Amino acid sequence: MELEIRLFTGLKCNNQELPCYGKQEFFLDVPEGTTVRELHRLLGIDPKTSLISLINGLSRPDEWVLKNKDRVGIFPPVGGG
Amino acid sequence: MKIFRVNMTNLTVTVEDVPQEWQGFGGRALTSAIIAKEVEPGCHALGAGNKLVFAPGLLSGTTAPSSGRMSVGGKSPLTGTIKESNVGGTASQKLARLGVKALIIEGQPQGDGFYSLHLDKNGIKIEEDKVLAGRGNYEVIKKLDEKYNEKIGIITIGQAGERKMLSANISIKDPDGGLRSAGRGGLGAVMGSKKIKYITIDDTEAPGVPVADPEKFKEAARVFAKGLTEHPVTGQGLPTYGTNVLVNIVNEAGGLPTRNFSTGRFDGANKISGETMYDIIVSRNGKPTHACHPGCVIRCSQVYNDKDGNYLTSGFEYETIWAFGADCCIDDLDIIARADRICDDIGIDTIETAVTIGVAMEGGVIPFGDGEGLLNLMGEIEKGSYLGRILGNGAEFTGKAFGVTRVPAVKGQAIPAYDPRSVKGIGITYATTTMGADHTAGYSVATNILKVGGDIDPLAKEGNLELSRNLQIATAAVDSTGLCLFVAFCILDNAEAFQAIIDMLNAQYGLSLTADDVTELGKTVLRTERAFNQGAGFTSRHDRLPEFFKKEACPPHNAVWDFTDEEIDAFWNF
């Protein structure tokens, strides 16, 4: 299935084996049933980093199962206002 | 410490002991207590009966990290409510070191002339100003730096305040000669109505702030600083990218008000984001990290240069960038920075002004996305033309002038950078705060979107009323300490850092406060402010969001504002 992925605030794809290596905004084919945590791992994002994952604009936990055509935004901790 | 009272009717100064009832107050607790006690709630905010109060926070002037915030209070001409506007810069620490618990300005002089105040170790001098009236804030700072020296503290109003525009702010010099703003609620117009153009503060040989137990204070301050620097938001995110890092996450969450609050995502978001801004600042030799006051460890401010590498603006905040950007459909940071600079120079609130221009765009004055047109409108405000005077009076006034029904304002004050339909906790804050729509009064976005201090669904009603209530109580207390509100990102997650604040207060004042006392202080502040507003004629009917939030769904979540009146009114059950 295909995901529409945006990585923000210094995050980028760190997996050299993926076509999106080094990119922040890309589409990616992943296996059906991939979870948010598995996507983090696939993209090579440090698992120690506390991340906010917005799936179609809604915050979802790491065990959330992704669906085809999901819009995924991943952020490190940010604040302001 | 003393209360300094300046009477502008007869141009006299008195110095008073601090009454017992106000001994434990500082910052917002003090400005609101003074206004509530001394100002008739029904008075005209621009008349002789209103007062303008400056109060450093309880910890200001000490070595406590990020403690240089000042509260400015009065009755707001924009909202008709009580107002506390909170600001950085160097004034708070200098006033505290001079022993000023509060500076109260009251009365009103005859005639059209403007005056200045000068504070130093010998007291306050009132002088006529025949040079700087009519000038912008940048020129005021430059001339006063030349007259005194670069260390002089300055509080000033621009042309907007002199003209008593309802969106006028009060500007405070920052450590590098830039400007910080007590932005919201039109207190610049109150200062203009008192005919004070500027206040200079010289803390040479000031007595300083006494600390009862210096060793305990030092240790608590160390713990607090460690908490701030180790938290990912206050230690990394804010110093690196500033507040504007929020554009992308609020946009992604569908809560970035766009095109005068008609949708929650902006196609040009990334072009105006904190990440893009960081790259621009670095490429033009600006400063991505900058402190608004000495001793701040968060340093969320920045210096933004133009294409030629010359200073354009500083303290370039998310709210400003969102409002001139997404809300007006402008995706060019340079245009937004120029608009910000004009706001700083003429002394007008960026949130109110930019939301106003969004309303004017809705009303057909210029098209959405017209950057040059936007700058032309800023020029009209600067000139004080009839159109400029309409715009300078804010979103609600402008909405009436141009027959616009989608006017995002509560109690007359423009709603800031989070759509209340998609971020419901902040909607409760907008509706209920004593200040008119104000995100800083109870920043529920932290927990709704940023997952600080927990995780409460931004689209559901559950938990959001309690979230806003708890944050508003805590904020009223933090605003009284002189600490920057951004310390909340840390203390919501770190109990040790929260305790360190209480330890610092206890060490400074020789007290034995507990967390419950701090909560009680916050509740007292809110109740005092609400009582003033009730005296001015406000009821629960004013604790409401504009109708369109109920009727128009906000994409991408197609959310509507669905709290009932009864649910909102339960906010005050504490």
Give the chain pair forming the largest contact, with residue counts: A-B, 19 and 39 residues
Q: Can you list the strand order of the major beta sheet of chain A?
A: 2-1-5-3-4
Strand line-up in the sheet with most strands of chain B:
2-1-6-3-4-5
The amount of beta strand of chain A, in percent, is 25-35%
Q: What is the number of helices of chain B?
A: 23
User: What about the largest sheet of chain A?
Assistant: 5 strands, mixed
- What is the level 1 CATH name of chain A? Alpha Beta
Helix/strand class of chain B: alpha+beta
> How widely separated are the two ends of chain B?
33 Å
**Per CATH, which architecture of chain A?**
Roll
Tell me the CATH topology of the largest domain in chain B: Aldehyde Ferredoxin Oxidoreductase,  A, domain 1
What is the CATH top level name of the largest domain in chain B? Alpha Beta
What is the alpha-carbon Rg of chain B in Å?
22 Å
**In which range does the helix fraction of chain B lie?**
25-40%
Total strands of chain B: the figure is 17
Are there runs of chain B of 5+ residues with pLDDT below 50, and where? none
Query: What oligomeric state best describes the polypeptide chains here?
Result: heterodimer
In round numbers, the mean pLDDT of chain A is 95
| Spatial gap, N to C terminus of chain A | 36 Å
* Secondary-structure element string of chain A: EEHEEE
What does this structure look like?
- The complex is a heterodimer of chains A (81) and B (574).
- With 81 residues, chain A is mainly beta.
- Chain A has 1 helix and 5 strands.
- Chain A has a 5-stranded mixed sheet with strand order 2-1-5-3-4, with no helix packed on it.
- Chain B is α+β, with helices and mostly antiparallel strands and 574 residues long.
- In chain B, strands 2-1-6-3-4-5 form a 6-stranded mixed sheet.
- The radius of gyration of chain B is 22 Å and the shape is globular.
- The chains are: A mainly beta (81), B alpha+beta (574).
- Chains A and B meet through β4 of A and α7 and α8 of B.
